[in-house]
Amino acid sequence: MLCFCCFGRTCLIPNNGYLSVAAASLVDEKLELHIVSKTRVIKLASSSFFYKRLWTSYGGIEHWPKEGSYQLPVPANVCPRLCHSKYRSSQGQLADQARSRSNHPLGCHR
């Protein structure tokens, strides 16, 4: 099986990065990790999008849907340190030290 992620960023197709973000979201859902925000590929049209003048002057179609990714909002803001502490290893004393140096009661910086 050929996996493009093994070859680094040079193999990415320009202007298609949204596909990898959506794919990461789907893999995250299947593995039930819940560390990537839910992302879907959608099509939107807007007068504020960039359309080349050549494209709009010949067809009479001024705005057509463009594909992109849309991240659904996270239901509740969670402190990154709390999220990290949930997944850290038993040897993660560094996170405890960082939390004790913070002024916030949960160890978060504002």
From TrEMBL:
Membrane disposition: Peripheral membrane protein
One Gene Ontology cellular component annotation held by this UniProt entry: trans-Golgi network
User: Could you tell me which InterPro entries the record lists for this protein?
Assistant: Lsb6/PI4K2 (IPR039756)
Q: Which GO terms describe its molecular function?
A: 1-phosphatidylinositol 4-kinase activity; ATP binding
Q: What is its main location?
A: membrane
Q: Signal peptide span per the entry? A: none
Which chemical reaction does it catalyze? a 1,2-diacyl-sn-glycero-3-phospho-(1D-myo-inositol) + ATP = a 1,2-diacyl-sn-glycero-3-phospho-(1D-myo-inositol 4-phosphate) + ADP + H(+)
Q: Where in the cell is it found?
A: Membrane
Q: What class of enzyme is it?
A: transferase
Q: Which GO BP terms sit in this record? A: endosome organization; Golgi organization; phosphatidylinositol phosphate biosynthetic process
Q: Which UniProt keywords apply?
A: ATP-binding, Kinase, Membrane, Nucleotide-binding, Transferase
As recorded in UniProt, its EC number(s) are 2.7.1.67
Ranges where the record places region Disordered: 88-110
Record keywords: Repeat included?
no
Q: Which family does it belong to?
A: Belongs to the PI3/PI4-kinase family. Type II PI4K subfamily.
- The name on file for this protein is Phosphatidylinositol 4-kinase type 2
Organism field: Mesorhabditis belari
